[in-house]
Amino acid sequence: MKPNTVRRTVGYLWILPALLLLLVFVYYPIVENFRLSVYKWNAFQPEPKFVGLGNYERVLADPVFWTSIGNNVGYAVVSVVFQVGIALILAAVLEGVVAPRLRGFLRTIYFIPATISITIVGLLFRIIYQPDGLFNSFLALLGVHSTTAWLGERETAIWSVIAMSQWQNLGYTTMLFVVAIQRIPREFYDAAAVDGAGPVRSFFAVTVPMVREMTTLLMIVTISGAFLVFNEIMATTAGSPGNSSQVLGTWLYQSAFKNDDMGYAAVVAVVIFVITFTAALLQLGYGRLRRVEQ
Amino acid sequence: MTTATSSPAKTRMRRSRIKLTPVRGLIGLVLAALAVLVVFPLVWMAISGFKTNAELYGDPWGLPGEWRWHNYERAYEYGVIHYIGNSLVVTIGSIILVVLVSSFAAFALVRVKIPFSAPLTMLVLGGLMLSETVALVPLFRIMRGIGLYNSLFGIIILYTAFRVPFITFLIRAYMLGLPQEVYDSAVVDGCNTWQIFWRITMPLCYPIIISAAVLQALFSWNEFVFALVFIKDDELKTMPVGLMTLQSKLTTDWPVVFAGLTMSAIPMVLAFLFGQRYFVKGITEGMGK
Question: Are residues B116 and B254 in the same domain?
Fold first, then answer.
């Protein structure tokens, strides 16, 4: 072999660990998941049996599956409103109105919940949401008397978890918007002021268009995250009461490891794959579009 | 470079625009209320960790009759410190492994110029589009098959494998921006590829490696799905799953649970308060700017 060929072959050693890990633990399982989705097997019947699209038919006919998707959609909508919409307004207010020293302090405070593990937050809110818990006594302070078990009722369980999630994540996206706003050249605001724009006009005329990139990215990331949500539910309701707060992730887990219905779980995984893969393609496409524009 | 702190000159300019008006007063009030809303549950959690059950339910807003450090000791005895320890092992282990593996890969793609580097780049970065949940069912068989089920090392491997695409993406982008001249002089000095990697590339990549480490720490410290499915023994559980066990062991003794929760929250909150600059930089880099 020529020395050059040796060097080139040795060059592959650099990327070999990454490739091995990816192929064995990421790519192979995902391909395998597609294959398994047309088989039926469980602990008592370890030899998989081919069932064609049978698992898919069962999933699509299952009301719990549709409840789960509905809850994921609800999660996505509320999260976009708070973690993109309200976070942007909050960041603009912090940067535009608040005295600088206080500004940094508030940003830090708002961010703290995002550093705390979801399990901790979930267990904490289990108590906060109890009938005699902090949330109801907070409502009583406002003059609303409630004895609702917020995580125990079919109508309120999922929305209470979604609310908790906004409490935890608002500061995170606000921080990202703050950074994006700080990158806007000051001259844009000065020019808007010369044109007689007040704070609200300059928010819409300068801030919103200038952070559009961050807004789009956060929107995609937030929606994709809402379809992958898992820990928030497991730490609070685990899908109860009566599967009313299941999401795709927890329903997959329940099907696979509690109901011992692996083929069914594999189909749910395929659905999650299709949704999050599409979101990722959008993100990628948007990134490329941006580079072309520049 | 961007950090969340403004430069003094910018600060002065902005301060001159700020006048106190009723609207501003109202905004201030809303922001302060929001801050209380965010912090109060956490302070309440820490304080409730000192209470008795009777105090917790009878007087949820009040302070404990005495500061019962005993609750924190009991949480400790129930294994909270093991959970935190396991989380530290998994977090530090996966940071080191993912940074190494990803730096190697990025170096191969950017510097060593191996043949077929374009499709290989796509293969590595394509992993960005895949999520843990989707792989869960087949992974269960794989992990059992190769004996990595119920081991911290297995978890470290998974945390590395699923984050290699993202961390490689970050480091690769940074390496692409490094100037060519430093390499040329190294080659003239007779450095081989291995030496170039350790003496030149890695030291220059220091800022992005810090960001990568922060992002990986946030991920591993909080990861739940894999930790739940692939760890069986209580002694091996990481903090997010271990705390669920703690709660089920102590169903009625919530103050001790709160003490355990508070203890588990402290490391990351402190890390954030002291290293806020790195957190902000890390999560901003993570958004791909």
Answer: yes
How near does any CA of chain A get to the CA of B90, in Å? 15
Query: pTM of the predicted model, to two decimals?
Result: 0.90
The owner of tokens 């005295």 is A99
User: pLDDT (tens digit, 9 = 90+) per residue, B57-66?
Assistant: 878 888 888 8
User: Kindly report the CA angle at B35 between B30 and B41, in degrees rounded to 5?
Assistant: 130
- Please state the domain count of chain A: 1
Task: Let me know: does B139 contact A25? Beta carbons within 8 Å.
Answer: yes
Query: Which among B59, B61, B113, B136 is the top mutation candidate for probing chain A, defined by the most A β-carbons within 10 Å of its own β-carbon?
Result: B136
Q: Using an 8 Å CB-CB cutoff, list chain B residues near A258.
A: none
Answer whether residue A229 is part of any domain: yes
Test mutation, A7, A21, A176, A213, chain B, max B CBs within 10 A? A21
Give yes or no for B152 touching A (CB within 8 A).
no
How many residues appear in chain B? 289
Number of domains in chain B: 2
DSSP secondary-structure letter at B63?
Answer: P
Quick check: A99 and B276 CB within 8 A? Answer: no
A226 in contact with B, Cβ within 8 Å: no
**Burial grade of B6 (CB within 10 A; 0-12, 13-18, 19 or more):** middle
Q: Chain A residues with CB inside 8 Å of B268's CB?
A: 115-117
Give SS3 for A202: helix
Q: Which of A27, A116, A270, A272 to mutate to test the interface with B (most CBs of B within 10 A)?
A: A116
Question: Is A129 domain-assigned?
Answer: yes
Q: Is B254 near chain A, with CB under 8 Å? A: yes
Instruction: Report the pLDDT value the prediction gives residue B284, as an integer from 0 to 100.
Output: 87
Beta bridge pairs of residue A40: A49
B269: CB partners within 8 A, 6+ apart: A112, A115, A116
User: In the structure, what pLDDT confidence band is assigned to residue B19 with cuts at 50, 70 and 90?
Assistant: low
The C-alpha atoms of residue B85 and residue A121 are separated, in whole angstroms, by 20
Question: What is the per-residue pLDDT across A228-274, written as a single tens digit (0 to 9) for each?
Answer: 999 999 999 999 999 999 999 999 999 999 999 999 999 999 999 99
Could you tell me if B272 and B226 lie in one domain? Answer: yes
Structural domain range at position B208:
79-286
Secondary element (H or E) of residue B28: helix B22-48
Between CA B28 and CA A94 the distance in angstroms is: 10
Per DSSP, what are the bridge partners of residue A50?
Answer: A39
- How many Cβ atoms sit within 10 Å of the Cβ of residue A188? 15
